[in-house]
């Protein structure tokens, strides 16, 4: 049930007389209806939160909290929700400290299956304790800047929780050792390891970790390798072992040349999206090696971090080799021209959306031509040619580096709970 509107608690209690279903949802003697409680869009008053846990904690299976949760509140959760199977703690304004998380690690329900800790207070030692106490853990989200999670705790998690299906380690200090440990989790479906460094500026995710991971986790469908040092050789093994892949994010993988992408398209029939931004090693020849295998591809992001060697020839190969292409993002490619864009628009019959960012020789005229032919193409990020043939300087507002927006991140699903009612409390202001 979803409750909308800035109603204070008192009025909602009065409103319980409006209908039987509303009354049932707020009946403090019917905890069976309170299996999933979502506070991600609300600042609950501490007294309401405590009352909820005291009266309905025994029935709560999935608790999602965003703000105002401190150590005392987390202790109440552990004490009053013994059947908790999923817990989400979002970082912003979260008041939980390292002490509170340690208490959670020591007292949480052994039946916990899904845990999202987007807070900077997580440490290797407490993660190891959680893994020892919660062997049924299948979904773990540790994406948060400032964390210090390393290979040591991930190895323990993989050993204790071999039923892992989804793991998000964005920005953590892990290396190939963690990927090799994950090979012992054959049910792994989703793995996000973007921006992982062994030390500041030292990327340690390579083929030596990717290959054993691919061989041990054949069910992978989602893999984010952003800013890693994998090569086409590693992608070949990945393609041969993980044929169910639906999304592989290779943004800023600068050692990739292109033929490994072709292997992915050959072996992974569900792969319809290519994310190849800031892949400086891909040339026209590299595009040619995979474009001809892209008959199912509907979306492509491609370009360099500063200046890509691609030219109009690459655009021609993409247009001819990817007949189902709907969306195309071109970034930091100095070799493509207005003529190449016009040819692409004419030959790519399915193209509906094109984004051109920081491509030196492409002007607003090319964007206008695309729009006149039914292709949506924003003008931001393009250059405008002056009367004397020179180009005006352009401040690119669309190119914010290789870091993806929050909307681009795959969202790990919550565990399936049978016979549940969702209480989605989405109310502006305090309760």
What do these coordinates show?
There is one protein chain. This protein has 431 residues and is of the alpha/beta class. It has a domain at 272-398: Alpha-Beta Horseshoe (Leucine-rich repeat, LRR (right-handed beta-alpha superhelix)), CATH 3.80.10.10. The chain has 15 helices and 17 strands. Strands 1-17-2-3-4-5-6-7-8-11-12-13-14-15-16 form a 15-stranded parallel β-sheet. α12 runs parallel beside α13 (312-321). The radius of gyration is 25 Å and the shape is elongated. Mean pLDDT is 81; it is low at 1-18 and 385-431.
How is this structure best summarized?
With 431 residues, this protein is an alpha/beta fold. It has helices spanning 9-15, 20-25, 46-56, 71-80, 98-107, 124-133, 151-160, 176-182, 207-216, 232-241, 259-267, 284-291, 312-321, 338-347, 364-372; strands at residues 2-4, 36-39, 62-65, 86-89, 114-117, 139-141, 166-168, 190-192, 197-199, 202-203, 222-224, 247-249, 273-276, 299-311, 327-335, 353-357, 422-426. Strands 1-17-2-3-4-5-6-7-8-11-12-13-14-15-16 form a 15-stranded parallel β-sheet. Strands 9-10 form a two-stranded antiparallel sheet.
CATH topology of one domain: Leucine-rich repeat, LRR (right-handed beta-alpha superhelix)
Given the helix and strand composition, which structural class is it?
A: alpha/beta
Q: What distance separates the N and C termini? A: 18 Å
Overall geometry comes to elongated
Estimate percent helicity.
25-40%
In percent terms, what proportion of residues is strand?
A: 15-25%
Number of E-state strands? 17
Find the CATH superfamily of one domain: Ribonuclease Inhibitor
Largest sheet: 15 strands, parallel
| Largest beta sheet: strand ordering | 1-17-2-3-4-5-6-7-8-11-12-13-14-15-16
CATH architectural grouping of one domain: Alpha-Beta Horseshoe
Question: Which CATH class of one domain is shown?
Answer: Alpha Beta
Ranges where pLDDT stays below 50 over 5 or more residues in a row are 1-18, 385-431
* Mean pLDDT across all amino acids: 81
Number of helices: 15
């Amino acid at each position: 049930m979803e409750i909308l509107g800035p109603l204070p608690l008192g009025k909602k209690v009065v409103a319980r007389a409006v209908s039987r279903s509303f009354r049932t949802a707020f009946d403090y003697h019917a905890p069976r209806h309170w299996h999933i409680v979502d506070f991600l869009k609300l600042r609950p008053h501490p007294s309401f939160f405590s009352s909820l846990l005291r009266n309905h904690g025994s029935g709560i299976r999935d608790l999602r909290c965003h703000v105002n949760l401190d150590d005392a509140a987390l202790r109440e959760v552990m004490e009053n929700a013994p059947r908790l199977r999923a817990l989400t703690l979002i970082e912003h304004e979260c008041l939980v400290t390292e002490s509170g998380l340690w208490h959670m690690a020591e007292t949480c329900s052994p039946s916990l299956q899904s845990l999202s800790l987007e807070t900077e207070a997580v440490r290797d030692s407490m993660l190891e304790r959680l893994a020892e106490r919660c062997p049924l853990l299948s979904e773990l989200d540790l994406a948060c800047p400032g964390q210090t999670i390393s290979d040591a705790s991930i190895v323990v998690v993989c050993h204790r929780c071999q039923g892992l299906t989804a793991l998000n380690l964005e920005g953590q200090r892990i290396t190939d050792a963690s990927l090799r440990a994950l090979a012992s989790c054959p049910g792994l479906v989703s793995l996000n390891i973007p921006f992982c460094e062994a030390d500041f500026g030292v990327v340690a995710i390579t083929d030596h970790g990717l290959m054993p991971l691919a061989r041990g986790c054949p069910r992978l469908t989602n893999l984010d390798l952003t800013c890693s040092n994998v090569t086409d050789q590693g992608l070949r093994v990945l393609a041969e072992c993980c044929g169910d892949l639906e999304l592989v994010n290779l943004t800023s993988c600068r050692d990739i040349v292109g033929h490994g992408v072709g292997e992915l398209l050959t072996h992974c029939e569900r792969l319809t999206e290519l994310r190849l931004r800031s892949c400086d090693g891909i040339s026209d020849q590299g595009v040619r090696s995979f474009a001809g295998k892209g008959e199912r591809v509907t979306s492509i992001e491609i370009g360099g971090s500063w200046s890509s060697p691609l030219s109009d020839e690459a655009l021609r190969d993409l247009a001819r080799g990817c007949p189902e292409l709907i969306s195309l993002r071109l970034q930091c490619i100095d070799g493509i021209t207005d003529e190449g864009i016009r040819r692409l628009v004419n030959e790519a019959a399915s193209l509906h959306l094109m984004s051109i960012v920081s491509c030196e020789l492409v002007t607003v005229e090319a964007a206008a031509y695309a729009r006149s032919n039914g292709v949506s193409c924003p003008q931001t990020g393009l250059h405008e040619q002056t009367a004397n043939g020179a180009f005006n300087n352009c401040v690119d507002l669309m190119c914010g580096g290789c870091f993806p927006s929050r909307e681009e991140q795959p969202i790990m699903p919550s565990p399936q709970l049978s016979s549940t009612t969702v209480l989605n409390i989405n109310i502006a202001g305090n309760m």
